[in-house]
Design goal:
Largest sheet of chain A: 8 strands, mixed
Number of strands of chain A: 14
Order of helices and strands of chain A: HHEHHEHEHEEHEHEEEHHHEEHEEEH
CATH class of the largest domain in chain A: Alpha Beta
Oligomer: homodimer
CATH superfamily of the largest domain in chain A: Type I PLP-dependent aspartate aminotransferase-like (Major domain)
Distance between the termini of chain A: 47 Å
Structural class of chain A: alpha/beta
Largest interface: A-B, 82 and 82 residues
Helix content of chain A: 40-55%
Strand content of chain A: 5-15%
């Protein structure tokens, strides 16, 4: 029956990363592949009490259809969260999404016409590429350095091409782990205003800052509703509840609401009620501090092991937060080829090529540290270090 | 910032029904407007135990990222449910969706190219129209009678136009409440094979049969993977969990899975675990019987009141299940105009015009009975009967 498929379905290919992660799921493999939070970060016991209290207090409402924009008490809670992140906003500027992934998909639907040009970091978040791609944009990659997207490269692009949208992950970026400085955040907004471009700020990891306070979002400097800000409870509560949000002007959110209707009517009510209850019952700041402490120790273990075992030809990022380290092997090497050998030695990572919408930078890779125990991080990085050393020597 | 909107967003209009339902939400209004299950149908107390047991037994897994196709134990349970519905299938033929609405949206993404022709009942489900519309199909309405879509009208269409998809709600259709006979189900499949057309069978209400056993789905007669079957837990457990499913060939489901990835990665894990636990712990058949008994009494109350109070010029359906009654006023009358007067008298319904993708049959309306108490049904129908009598007399 494949003759019935739409052009979109014909072009939709199972992501290479997805196939790779399937291989890496075997329990005897040390996997730096996925982008999963640590299971130790989830408040499982607390959620038992939260579930019972929620059903006792809010009863059938937690199981009924809800509004597309989301539960008002949860949206009010997010207004407070945004205030902590230095963004002054109101309940009308918040819409609940079924995870940040739905926020990305809706962003594509709301803004992208075929051929529209999107500036993004090079490399950028794989699932954003796949969320936007069905709307047929043209991706324009902007070079990064250790301080995130380079503003000189961005301005060079903006002055040359008619860019409609800048898509950026300023905090502990997926996949590189890099963070944009405050100066660059302000500069990006200045450039966006100068060239009349919309900014999509995607911040799933913003609060997971290991070495100091979280950075102010670009949205916090936005005085003209030019920034659409996406975030999620996936990294500070849990991803299984698929609950995220968008913060933007009411005019923009009206379009998100209308188009979300057709996607899933509304986000899971029970999870919305539970998250709200969890925040009002427990000390979530303390829980986030616990996650930060846990991930920081894992990051330290990974960076220390990399310093010890990776050959000096490999460059890598030293993330100040989040979940990922990025590494670059010498040019011409192919981490997809080396992947097979790594899996034979029972270690997995994500080859970096898929994170570039256009370029083929196959000498790169992403390493996740949040979802692996420290002992295994040490062993796994040692094995990868030995393998990479052999591969570099045998070039 | 509306200059940044995509063409899709420009064309997306807030649904008239949505605005109408907002008006009707005031607690002093007797509303036959929404399509909500009765809150008394939800197993709130049971879910407290289910939530605690789920978190105790499956722990962090209920809060972690999951697979796009959905939880295997839940999909196995759906295989058994499908077997009860006379469809023999396997776990590889089931994908979990974020409500049936996501199933409809994905169906549009997987199959519809701009200009593709879709045959559907006239009238048909409003949210299916809005789910398909962004993919720019042409809707071809097929006349109905009390036994559902008319097969002579369908064949006349198929022989004249190149139809790609038949979209049908054979059981207690939304909005008409009508049910297709077994003979027509078989005939639709025969015609689909003859003219090489795909069938999308949407069955959210199939189990809610008041006057005898549920009908066998069209899918139960399908020997060549020509039918994509959509269903949901919304009407037999609750809609707030946003959990539905698709049953189709693996070849077709692979496309659904790939495209669902970009939509929301996967459906809420906690709800999937809870529904599975609920089914394996409690007697869900008995619960569904309870819902049927409750809705049947409401349907009876509504039909009796209509017989007593509606003027003889109004035709109406007598649904054998589901949640809706459909009524047709004399031609030329406009239920949108009368709606304002009905709301003044504190009763709401949904004007029927929006359920027609092309036609303007503004003399129709939909009445929901599942979400209103029997006393209020009697009062509300009496008020509507008086209003309609006045309006017909004053034509």
């Amino acid at each position: 029956m494949n003759k019935f498929f739409s052009e979109t379905a014909e072009n939709a290919k199972t992501s290479a990363v997805r196939e790779i992660l399937k291989i890496a799921q075997s329990p005897d493999i040390i996997s730096f592949g996925g982008g999963l939070p640590s299971p130790d970060a989830f408040p499982v016991e607390e959620m038992k009490a939260v579930a019972v209290d929620t059903l006792t207090e809010s009863g059938y409402k937690t199981m009924q259809y809800g509004t597309t924009e989301g539960l008002v008490p949860l949206r009010n809670l997010i207004v407070d969260l945004m205030d902590k992140r230095s963004v002054k906003t109101g309940v009308g500027n918040i819409v609940i999404t079924t995870g940040s992934q739905q926020g990305l998909n809706l962003t594509g639907k709301v803004f992208i016409n075929p051929g529209d040009k999107i500036a993004c970091e090079s490399p950028t978040y794989l699932a954003a590429i796949s969320a936007f791609k069905p709307y047929k944009p043209e991706f324009c990659e902007v070079d990064m350095d250790e301080e995130g997207m380079r503003m000189d490269a961005l301005e060079a692009l903006l002055s040359k091409e008619k860019i409609k949208i800048i898509y950026t992950i300023p905090d502990f970026q997926n996949p590189t782990g890099r963070t944009m400085t405050v100066e660059r955040r302000k500069e990006m907004l200045r450039l966006a205003t100068k060239y009349d471009v919309l900014i999509i700020e995607d911040s799933p990891y913003g609060e997971l800052a290991f070495d100091g306070d979280p950075m102010p979002p670009i949205k916090s400097f936005d005085t003209e509703d030019r920034v659409v800000y996406l975030s999620t409870f996936s990294k500070i509560v849990c991803p299984g509840f698929r609950t995220g949000w968008i913060c933007a002007s009411e005019e923009i959110l009206n379009k998100y609401i209308t188009l979300k209707q057709g996607l899933d009517l509304h986000t899971n009510q029970f999870s919305q009620y539970m998250i709200e209850k969890y925040f009002t019952t427990y000390d979530v700041d303390a829980q986030v501090d616990k996650i930060i402490e846990m991930y920081k120790a894992k990051r330290d273990a990974m960076i220390t092991a990399i310093e010890e075992h990776f050959p000096k030809e490999i460059n890598y990022s030293k993330p100040a937060g989040g979940m990922f380290v990025w590494a670059e092997l010498p040019e011409g090497m192919d981490t997809k080829e080396i992947f097979t050998k790594a899996v034979e030695r029972k270690v997995a990572y994500v080859p970096g090529g898929s994170f570039y919408p256009n370029k083929s930078m196959d000498n790169t890779l992403r390493l996740n540290f949040s979802n692996m125990e420290i002992d295994k991080i040490k062993v796994g990085i040692k094995i990868l270090g030995e393998l990479f050393t052999e591969e570099i020597n045998n070039r």
